[in-house]
Amino acid sequence: QVVFALNQTLLQQESLRAGSFQIPYTTEDLIKHYSCGDLSSIIFNHDTSQVPNFINTTLLAHERVTAQEIDSYFRQELIYKRNERMGLRVKDLLEEYPDKSFFFAFGAGHFMGNNTVIDVLRREGYKVEHTPAGQDI
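== Metalloprotease TIKI ==
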């Protein structure tokens, strides 16, 4: 699976370099949607937006199964479990020090797709609000 994942990543990067494959959104698009708090936008609604996409129509049947297994593993280990740990750490700090103020900063990847840090905190009963860029806290 590791060799398959590396080969697919290299093929994807070669296609990007050759211009035969394009990412459907730019870095500017990501920044704009993140700044506006529009994380439910179409560009953010894929669980695998943070990891390479190995599943494509050119794969053979057995390769497609391998790609789906890797995609599932990445989604679970690199996204869901990571966000769960981070969200629970925030919750623990808030509960351990209820009289303190905190400022938590996360990269945009922690707010994309499903099972985000925000989702974890909301499940734990917290109200989370977006603070737009330039707004005083």
